Amino acid sequence: MSNNASLRVISSSADERIYVTQPHLPPLSEFIPYLEKIWDSKLLTNGGPFHVQLERALCEYLGVPHLSLFTNGTLALVTALQALRITGEVITTPYSFVATAHSLLWNGIKPVFVDVEPNTLNLDPAKIEAAITPQTTAILPVHCYGHPCDVEAIQKIADNYNLKVIYDAAHAFGVRDDSGSVLRRGDLSVLSFHATKVFNTFEGGAIICPDAKTKQRIDHLKNFGFVDEVTVVASGINGKMSEINAAFGMLQLKHIDHALARRKEIDATYRELLRDVPGIRCLPSAGETAANYSYFPILVNAEYPASRDALYQTLRDNNIYARRYFYPLISDFPMYRGLPSARRENLPVAAEAALKVLCLPIYPSLSNDNVERIVRIIADC
Ligand code: T4K
Description:
It holds the Pfam family DegT_DnrJ_EryC1. The chain has 381 residues and is α/β, with parallel strands linked by helices.
């Protein structure tokens, strides 16, 4: 089956369930030769040939110097914090998937939530300084929906206060700005290759780092701390990506440009069709020179005749499973809400966004007919 056939877009039917995303899967027949290689070599994990190949291929594709594969994005985040020996307090965003802050708790670090800015819903640099204390050691921003943070402003603050910056770049595969890959910004960036992401290895993730020495430390940390058969240099974890996942990543890379191009078309169609729907605002891009269209967030404003949650329900009644990413805010979950920085008054922009944003379905095989059907339901609500 050709690339085009694998992206075949079927026409719409009201009985068809449409989810916020659907993984892009190349034809199964294309994966068989990869599996045969694994069966022949009997190398299933622990840095096998596909693991080595995928690390190299991703560095080249993404335009980054060093990359270490992981079993998922969450373990990559947990390990990134350990690699830089982050302790004390870390400034982060409440407007993200819960794994962002959980990675801090897993390291015994106190999250300090800072509000987001209204255009990108990314950490607001203007509010970071007021949250810095003598215990602050790092900033953990998120390139939310793949829209880059204000990386220059964040770096300036980090340099002034001698803080590390680790980007949760789970949504930002392939995103570039004027100076190249946004994944090169900060001290480390962490990707997720989960099934729901633009580039998926079923489960998977990676840390991107600037130099070979840091990569070596990360590689030790994801392999129990082993340097050789008898030497353990750190209390590492098992974070290694298996050969099946890495092989699948190699195959996915062949199809990624095609998948991104189809996402771009869907993004453009939504923007065009939603332009004149009163009360609906599409989140603008954040100045990226290459976007990945990983999510399609809309804001349901007061002029819209229904609430965000009513629209969410109407879409569900029509078999369309849009998602309220990111509601509730991380700071509202029980393990965080007692923190002083979790107070609503501290996070007004994030709190409002959590009540207004709806992420519409976007994935390569979503048909234009279905995009039109989704917009019709929104316009008629
Ligand atoms: N940081 C950020 C900013 C993140 O967004 C994430 C993950 C992480 C860190 C952690 O990275 P990982 O450790 O996950 O690599 C999903 C994902 O599970 C999660 O990876 C993702 N962020 C988050 C934003 O979304 P759910 O609970 O919404 O997933 P779920 O199972 O409801 O899937 C959504 C829809 O996707 C389903 O309704 C149908 C479709 N789907 C899903 C799966 C898993 C499929 O068609 N096939 C599938 O296999 O969290």
